[in-house]
Write a structure and sequence with these properties.
The protein is α+β, with helices and mostly antiparallel strands. It contains 4 helices and 3 strands. The protein starts with a helix and ends with a helix.
């Protein structure tokens, strides 16, 4: 299972800012693995993060990935 694809699809489904804990409940994947995937996606420019509140705000470039 590709955790990064699961994270992107879960963020798209929620449609609003989501925290790692909420993603953990939605996907059933452990918190540490999710945090690593989110950090990697952020570095690649695929996710917009709010570092102050540790929230995932949106998926960047959604048109390209659909």
């Amino acid at each position: 299972m590709d955790i990064e694809k699961v994270v992107l699809s879960a963020v798209r489904k929620t449609g609003c800012p989501v925290k790692i804990g909420q993603l953990e409940k939605i996907t059933g994947i452990d918190r540490n693995s999710l945090q690593k995937a989110v950090n990697q996606l952020s570095l690649e420019g695929k996710l917009q993060l709010d570092r102050c509140y540790n929230k995932i705000l949106s998926v960047k470039g959604e048109e390209d990935e659909l």
